[in-house]
Design brief:
Length: 386
């Protein structure tokens, strides 16, 4: 297994489980289960025991390995030099499990859906651009930007609303952009983190070839997960394209005066998406959008930025639901944290986070006092507010 030579270096000190001030636990799976086996350190020791033959692949071991949301909090807080490879070690172990042919059924079904239909929803490619109906959105034909929407933005009802809001803003600002529609392949980020390295390489090479064929030089992504794959993983396969998350583009449009927010009175808190924040290093852009809207009072949750609690959708869990949705699940803990701020709006920058947190609000019975909005949706609403 890749990284096998450093899997023994974890001393199980426990720093990886905490926020930087040691006030709270920040590993989503540990926070739910409260067993060290579900913490990064315990997971490392189990992987080592598996590699040395002390334990075997089992349903329980699969649950432990796949409960990791790859949020990167352990990378932020580990005290040792191998910290940058922590998430990569867990992904490499998943690759070994995939190669052995023994994986959780939900993970197997996810790979099957991507392989057959090109998306995890088992829906036809012809429906991939349905979200853009009745909007001034053109097919990509050499425009300055390709707006890469991704599977969740294309097929999920919540994600579609985000794609529509962002496209309206780009159009209003006069940005030259187009979409690939039914020709848009899956970016493969979740395929990679779930351990199917071969399928991920196949998707990356398809995307890169398509981008080259269509002359794509610049990409705006809706989903931070696609942003992560394009910026960090695609270069290995020759995909060297300028990629920006939509929040970064919207900030530039506001600062240049091409988008002029109007007053929108509300108290809001912001949830940092792991793949935009910890993985992507972008904490400022979404907050700049909020602060640019007159009337928005931004209040931070205690756990924010690099200490933000993951919604639990990362690492493929958005599709596999291995972490589940009971009261101790990270998405439900997160909406309770948001409610404690007194905010009426919970702002996100990721379609997976939007869905995870909306579901948690319903489960917590907070529909009448807390509403999830994407940063693009809020900006769009402020601009089009009567």
């Amino acid at each position: 297994m890749k990284y096998a030579d450093i899997a023994h270096r974890c001393f199980r000190c426990g720093y990886c489980k905490f926020t930087s001030d040691y006030e709270n636990f920040n590993c989503p799976s540990y926070r739910k289960y409260r067993f060290d086996t579900f913490a990064p350190g315990g997971r490392m020791w189990l992987i080592r025991a598996w590699l040395t033959g002390e334990i075997e692949n089992s349903e329980r071991f699969q649950e432990i390995l796949y409960s990791c949301a790859t949020c990167g909090s352990c990378v932020e807080h580990c005290a040792f030099t191998f910290r940058e490879d922590l998430v990569n070690i867990f992904i490499a172990a998943r690759e070994e499990m995939v190669n052995s042919g023994r994986i959780p059924p939900a993970v197997r079904d996810y790979f099957k859906a991507i392989s057959i239909h090109g998306n995890p929803y088992n829906l036809p490619a012809a429906e991939r651009a349905a979200w853009a109906e009745n909007l001034p959105v053109e097919s990509y034909n050499g425009q300055e930007y390709l707006f890469y929407v991704g599977c969740v933005g294309s097929y999920d009802e919540r994600g579609r609303k985000m794609a529509q809001a962002v496209s309206r803003l780009l159009s209003k600002a006069g940005v030259s952009f187009g979409i690939l529609g039914e020709q848009e392949p899956c970016d493969g980020n979740e395929v990679r983190v779930l351990g199917e390295a071969g399928l991920f390489q196949f998707l990356a090479e398809i995307n890169i070839a398509l981008f080259r064929e269509r002359g794509v030089k610049k990409i705006i992504t809706l989903d931070p997960h696609a942003f992560n794959a394009f910026t960090k993983d695609y270069p290995e396969f020759g995909g060297d394209i300028e990629v920006r998350h939509y929040s970064q583009v919207l900030v530039d449009l506001i600062e240049s005066g091409k988008l002029k927010p109007k007053a929108f009175a509300a108290k809001a808190t912001f949830h940092d998406a792991c793949y935009l924040g910890r993985h992507g290093g972008e904490y400022k852009a979404p907050r700049k959008i909020l602060r640019a809207i007159p009337g928005i009072e931004l209040v931070e949750m205690d756990q924010n930025r690099e200490n933000a609690l993951c919604c639990g959708g990362g690492g493929g869990n958005f599709f596999t639901d291995i972490l589940g949705g009971d009261a101790d699940s990270p998405n439900r803990i997160r909406v309770r944290q948001a409610r404690e701020t007194g905010a009426e709006l919970l702002i996100v920058s990721c379609p997976q986070c939007a869905k995870m947190l909306e579901d948690a609000i319903k489960a917590e019975g907070l529909e009448n006092c807390l509403t999830v909005m994407d940063a693009g949706e809020l900006l769009d609403a402020s601009i089009h507010e009567d």
